[in-house]
Amino acid sequence: MAEMTASRSRVTEPPAAAPSPARTSRTLSTGRARRRYWTIVTVLSILAVGFAFGLLAWNNPMPVGSDGFWRIAEMRSTNLVVMIVVAICQAVATVSFQTVTNNRIITPSIMGFEALYIAIQTTAVYFLGVAGIIAIQGVSQFLLQIALMVGLSMLLYGWLLSGRYGNLQVMLLIGIVIGGGLASVSTFMQRLLTPSEFDVLAARLFGNIANADASYLPIAVPLCLGATAVLLWSSRRLNIVALGRDASVGLGLNHRRETMRVLFLVSILMAVSTALIGPMTFLGFLVATLAYQFADTHDHRYVFPVAVLTCFVVLSGAYFVMRNIFYANGVVSIIIELVGGLVFLFVILRKGRL
Amino acid sequence: MITLKGVRKDYGGEVTIGPVDLELPKGGLTALVGPNGAGKSTLLTMMGRLLGLDEGTIEIAGYDVVETASKDLAKIVSILRQENHFVTRLTVRQLVAFGRFPYSKGRLTVADEEIISRAIDFLDLTDLEHRYLDQLSGGQRQRAYVAMVLSQDTEYVLLDEPLNNLDMRHSVQMMKHLRRAAEELDRTIVIVLHDINFAGHYADRICAVKDGSVVEYGTPERIMTDEVLTRVFETPVTVVDGPNGPLAVYY
User: Fold this and answer.
1) For residue B114, which of A176, A279, B1, B18 sits 20 to 30 Å off, Cα-Cα?
2) Per the domain annotation, does B177 fall within a domain?
């Protein structure tokens, strides 16, 4: 190959002018684009740190820096860790999922993770009454829920993608249908619950930071960080996958294996996030779209960090507002869908493209 | 050399491609022509290992396309499909740079950048290289994709209707670019074409496909005759002497 290249370069004359230093294929090749990117990362980081500190310090009766202050902050820090885990899970999973499906307007939630979560919670309450909520809490139950969600999605991917006519669109459609089916069964069971049982259940069906238990974190954190590390490390290959199946096979990528691998990691991330705090349908979609607007590049190495930061800012911001302004502890999905939806519409309408 | 032996593809029921036996020599530009649904694109995508075979073997430069690892094939043969999912916020240069993936796995070297620059210059995209793909016309985007395939630097280049979306001027330019790539860069180019006159003028060999099998294969002089074209395209064709060689008239 090398000598062939050499002989070719003799035939195709290089351009008369020496190649200027501007001729590079690097992402963010102009100074302006780089400055813009790092400004956004800095602003997001400041916001993230600000909200994180606010959550620890706001309404903390002890003076900042004192022994008591840190003791109270420590008690609140579990929520912070949960939010970091969820932010990483949702952001990385959604960006990766949108890439392998070549579709910027869907979220991995449609693959039935949330419907399954809701079905599990509802079934427990339906059969065991209020005690059911207690029965499905605990580390082993948490693990079981993750395993169920990952298992269901792997079954779906494995069956539909490895088949002879396997294709992504069919997989997505069947995912949606299964999700819809599970949701209907859950709704039906919810109709038959007593009002008090339903009340207890309803609290579990909103994305709520307070749903998480500190004892889950030793499992959730390594799973989340492990899957994220692998996906970050695959960024360059994800850039190729984004070109679509034909182009990536043409470039020598094992497209099916890559897709399966990414979907498996996505299912772990989504399962961890959902089992930890419950459904957050809109969050991933919102931050992935915003992250693409902010990062203004196709390159996953740059999109991932922005997405995670955006996700944490949205999540902690919503939590901060809910907790300190509306005194509604923890139920963040409501405010994210309200404010996030408006921000989302604003950004899209202003820029005019996804 | 591209060798197809007993290649067959079933599309369930009546539609079958093959069995096709064909040998395309190294070098030059081969055009696949034929009516709609004849199986030109199917043959091409099977050669480019984007589509599995049901029977038979395809070898490119001695490598079986099914057995050989895809990442090794990517250094021997490149393929461009008709429709390409295009990513937003991707510049022409970044797209062309993807062509270096089989070699650099995304970590571009100085040598890679040079090859990328050459591919861009070769297709006259120098002024557009930092434009985003969604700011380009269909024809410019098409050229950008061809530049990506050229920067993959493979001996064999398979193109599925690269003249789609191109107007007269750009079609001619594209064919001239490909002609030059075949001659100057010593590539073996296989191309699916719709316009028989483009094939007759620019190709070294024409391969006519009809109902899933190769019905005619030879030099343009041999294919560009009333009898052959009428039979292949199932419509009356008269070949006249044009100023630049034979011209098929079918309207």
Assistant:
1) B1
2) yes
Query: Which positions in chain B touch A8 (Cβ < 8 Å)?
Result: 153, 185-186
Tell me whether A103 touches chain B (CB under 8 Å).
no
Q: How many domains does chain B have?
A: 1
pLDDT above 90: residue B112: no
- Has residue B117 been placed in a domain? no
Reported confidence tier of residue A43, pLDDT bands at 50, 70, 90 = very high
pTM above the 0.90 mark?
Answer: no
Choose the closest CB to B102 out of A8, A251, A254.
Answer: A251
Q: Looking at CA atoms only, how far is residue B155 from chain A in angstroms? A: 9
Give residue-wise pLDDT tens across range B171-201.
898 899 899 888 888 889 999 998 888 988 8
The CATH number of whichever domain residue B6 belongs to comes to 3.40.50.300
Task: Note whether B61 contacts A: Cβ–Cβ < 8 A.
Answer: no
ipTM field: 0.86
Answer whether A32 touches B (CB < 8 Å): no
The DSSP letter of residue B238 is E
Q: Least CB-CB distance to B78: which of A4, A11, A250?
A: A250
Token pair, residue A342, equals 């408006």
- Contact criterion met (CB < 8 Å) for B114 and A237: no
CB of A65 within 8 Å of any CB in chain B?
Answer: no
pLDDT at A14 over 70: no
Nearest to B50 among A14, A243, A246 (CB): A246
Q: Could you tell me the residue range of the domain that residue B236 belongs to?
A: 2-84+155-249
Pairing of strands B2-10, B55-60: antiparallel
Is residue B55 included in any domain, yes or no? yes
Chain A within 8 Å of B213 (Cβ-Cβ)?
no
At A271-293, the pLDDT tens digits run 888 888 888 878 888 888 889 88
